[in-house]
Design goal:
UDP-N-acetylmuramoyl-L-alanine:D-glutamate ligase; four-stranded mixed β-sheet; 37% helix; nine-stranded mixed β-sheet; globular; 307 residues; alpha/beta; 11 helices; homodimer
């Protein structure tokens, strides 16, 4: 067993300037698993759903190499639900409705068969839940990757600080990096955040790409300029899935290895935003992915001859 | 003679979250010339200043290879003056005061010795002035590069459309590209703008880097992540100066050649923002510039091995 993914599996209802979805399947673990499964299998999932979560969705994920043993199904309860509306710039959104449902009382249990993983991906969830998973692992994974959000910085900072001390890589967006560090400059924010525990920091900037920081190096991967961002929901999780899925396939956790993971994550995220929810991720062929990675190479590849 | 630069030479008074400058020397042509002179000389300047413009400044530019024959000095009048204040994000600013002075009645005259230039760089100025310079050139330069801004789109669109039909490359920022094209997506904006005349479009996104579009290719150069953007004034002009200065030195106006120019422009702009006004540009050594270009290469350089 080599990759554990912890995160929500849920329903979203999404409104963008370009359209509106019904209640569709979403959640961090869902996006991460769809994305990661292009690069590595099996994927040991840890999550909780209600009786309303479609059995068919679980079956599709299983067919993609997901192990469902760590998913709790609360038949008499409902799955987490989020309804939100994106603004024109697609980088900001309003939450219109949140129903915690099964997620409000989630107590994750790590199955024995999940022990000895190489990578633990902690998707965005309560830091207490994330901490519980870390503590249940007999051996520390070689790489622990954390996603979190501003909500936890505001409501559970003490627990979040504990989690931060136990992870190798933190993934956040630019406004979250600024909030966590109380620094406006992202370079300074990165320095402050790495003092809190993570050896590496990935700052996701949506349409403006992503930055990878170590204590003494920095790498930048652009977002692919695309005609229209149709729905950004799940793009960050899809990025994370491509990132850790690729890393699990290479086992190269050096800075150079992480750089490649960032490019793969960016490529995967660029697919996610093309259609509502996980729609686009379900259609992808290996050739689609390879072609997009080539586009990334062309996008940033240059040759300077100094005169 | 190979490079003509048209633009303002002026005074600025700047307020940023980090400090405040007195009235200091600025203007598009000033920044462009300081930046371009690292890569090519001579630089044929066309501008207008009042009697208040320091003779010493003109002497310094001359020592950097600027030809001053096309600069009109109106001894009894005052130079253009702009006072502004930047917001915390440094991408937006308020204009607090504008005194057009000599710029209000500027009628550029192209000296005979400037004819047969390879490159014409039209810095941000009234489209009527830009058009006058184009019309005075007996032979069309191989490359005509235009900078403009939202103000001219709002007040002189008919003239601006005429200029656009005569240029090869347009440089604008992201909000200007959106305004000019009435498209939110930058990919769609680029397509619309290239229908207006330019074969290439450069969209400057400040701290988020720059995009270069042709009809069927796109290239992205990031901005160097730096500890603190101290003063963004002139960064766009410094970018333009590095871009056209480098192109004048290579004479490679292909898409591949332009890509290198974009990286050089980005590197030069990253210096500009480190201190007030042109201060940092005046201190640079060739080694400083080469080191920074190496940093750019490291920032985006990656190697993907697909598994």
């Amino acid at each position: 067993m080599s990759l554990i993914v912890v995160g929500s599996m849920a329903f979203d209802a999404i409104e963008t300037p370009f359209g509106k979805s019904d209640k569709i399947v979403g959640g961090a673990a869902t996006y991460i698993a769809w994305s990661a499964s292009n690069f590595t299998r099996p994927i040991d999932l840890i999550s909780v759903v209600g009786g309303d979560f479609p059995q068919k969705e679980l079956g599709l994920l299983q067919a993609r190499g997901a192990i469902l043993e760590g998913i709790q199904i609360k038949s008499d309860k409902k799955s987490f639900f989020w309804r939100g509306k994106y603004h024109m710039d697609m980088n900001t959104r309003d939450t219109l409705e949140t129903q915690l449902n099964v997620l409000g009382e989630f107590e994750p249990v790590v199955p024995d068969s999940y022990q000895n993983a190489d990578i633990l991906m902690l998707g965005n969830l309560s830091p207490a839940v994330q901490l519980s998973v870390i503590d249940q692992l007999a051996t520390r994974p070689k790489l622990v990757v954390l996603d979190t959000m501003n909500f936890w910085m505001e409501t559970a900072m003490t627990d979040l600080e504990k989690v931060l001390r136990k992870v190798d890589i933190l993934l956040v967006n630019d406004s979250e990096a600024r909030q966590l560090s109380a620094q406006y400059s992202l370079v300074r924010a990165a320095k402050e955040i790495m003092k809190m525990g993570p050896k590496y920091l990935v700052i996701k900037k949506g349409e403006h790409g992503a930055l990878l920081f170590s204590s003494n190096q920095v790498f930048f991967a652009p977002a692919l300029p695309i005609d229209e961002v149709f729905d950004p929901t799940g793009a960050g999780d899809t990025f994370a899935g491509g990132f850790i899925g690729y890393l699990d396939s290479t086992k190269d956790f050096s800075f150079e290895g992480l750089k490649s993971g960032i490019v793969i994550g960016s490529a995967m995220a660029s697919f996610c935003v093309e259609k509502f929810g996980t729609t686009r991720l379900r259609e992808l062929s290996r050739e689609d992915i390879d072609n997009r990675i080539k586009q990334f190479v062309e996008l940033v590849n240059f040759d300077i001859s100094l005169v």
